[in-house]
Amino acid sequence: MINPKKFPVVKTDSLEWVFVTRNAPDDINELRRRYRYHPLDLRDILPPVQRPKVVARDGYVFMILLFPIFDRKLRQIRATEVDFFVSPERLITVNVDGYEPLKGLFESCLQGSSQRRICLSGDVSQLLYAVLNDMLMSVFPMLVHINTDLDSIEKRMFTQYEKNLIQELLRIKMNVVNVRKAMQGHRHTIQCLVETAPAFLPIHRLRDYFDELVDHTKEIWETLQIQKDTVDALHETNQSLIDFRINEIIKTLTIISVIVFPLTLMAAIFGMNVENMPIVSHPQSFWIILALMAAGSGGMLFYFKYRKWF
Asked: 19, 9 in Cβ contact below 8 A?
């Protein structure tokens, strides 16, 4: 039996759940010494984050899954790795990031709540299902939050121009990408677990429940695909709006420069220091020149309006 001071344990007479939150060398050695797990599986516990997989060993099943975790401070989503060692009388979970759904479920079981009866009243396959189901269900509120952000971005995009809108859009896009990275292997891994489970892991008794987990992964992936398409469309729309605003600014500046050109030209001509300059010697030369400038500018404005350039 593992020392509870080293790893928290919740157990019944026939089943225990060992909750590992560290992957330091002495923790790895403890698992190796107590249970003689395969060195390759113990190595996969160490950084960096591994790809999802399931491997049947002699007397246990080793599985890796990734789950999205939200950093409230940075408002960013990243992947956290959860490792499973599943044997007939024991489930060992390894996660070093304090993944809240997993931690919360274990603490509920540790406190002797009704959750403990649900998780530990059967065999290890029932406990594994409860853990996987709780973690998968925790993804849905995250997807709802992403949808809320996308709706907010869409409203702001068409009502007001904000310089930080593109940063917000890119943040959401990166969050969607990171959730997709975490969830893309779940369906295949859980299906592989169900189809290749050894005899000591009676998943076949809960086949309908594990099929429900697969359905959850499909629903999550379909939602993520819709969100990916939405954020791509919003990004293209925002880029089109930016291009439109830039074109409007360039058009306005061009019109101003063309209108100012006759004024500049006349000022340059009548400002030349030459003899016999027409109009200059006239008593009302200033007003005549001013009228010519106004007529030139007015003519330009009328022409632009006639061509519907503004």
From this structure: yes
